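can u do me a favor
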């Protein structure tokens, strides 16, 4: 994995050499070098480790996903702002199984960096709502759940949102205490 700036330098150098090849009538070489430069430009905007981590996550390979994310040693220098958002989003998903406090930090960081797709942002807010609900911060959880529902325009998370609302309703129902008489027949 290259630093994001090295990718741009390589793309620029390859593109310059491609133009030189085309001017020297080696058009085939020039076209292939332009394609190679475009690959480096693509990898500047879409980090290869994050792409591979999403593929591993799709296959439910959590250890493999975590291993790929751990290969990114310094996210601030290796990733663009949006990529840092997705890095933290994926880290939050990985950590949410074991440590709610760390997962909350990762999801909040991911939201602050920004996520490109609305359903990813909705997923991060839904996870934050679940964490806030388990920490007994009901108002914050309701607010995050409403935001997630607004962002979920394609209804990809409608079932999860519905389940979360039902769990919140169950938790808000007060325990029923019967005001009837005690065994002795008299109320004390």
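np, heres the sequence
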């Amino acid at each position: 994995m290259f630093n994001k700036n090295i990718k741009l330098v390589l793309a620029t150098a390859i593109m310059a050499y491609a133009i030189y090849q085309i001017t020297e009538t080696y058009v085939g070489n020039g076209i292939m070098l332009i394609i190679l430069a475009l690959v480096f430009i693509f990898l500047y905007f879409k980090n290869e480790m994050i792409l591979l981590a999403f593929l591993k996550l799709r296959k439910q390979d959590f250890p493999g996903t975590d291993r790929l994310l751990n290969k990114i040693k310094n996210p601030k220098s290796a990733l663009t702002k949006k990529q840092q958002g997705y890095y933290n989003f994926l880290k939050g998903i990985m950590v949410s199984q074991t440590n709610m406090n760390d997962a909350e930090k990762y999801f909040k960081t991911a939201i602050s960096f920004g996520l490109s797709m609305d359903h990813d942002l909705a997923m991060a807010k839904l996870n934050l709502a679940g964490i806030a609900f388990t920490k007994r911060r009901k108002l914050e959880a309701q607010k995050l759940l409403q935001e997630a529902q607004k962002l979920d325009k394609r209804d990809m998370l409608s079932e999860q949102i519905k389940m979360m609302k039902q769990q919140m309703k169950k938790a808000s129902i007060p325990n029923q205490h019967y005001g009837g008489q005690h065994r002795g027949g008299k109320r004390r």
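Residues 47-172 form a domain with the Serine Threonine Protein Phosphatase 5, Tetratricopeptide repeat fold (CATH 1.25.40.10). hope that helps!!
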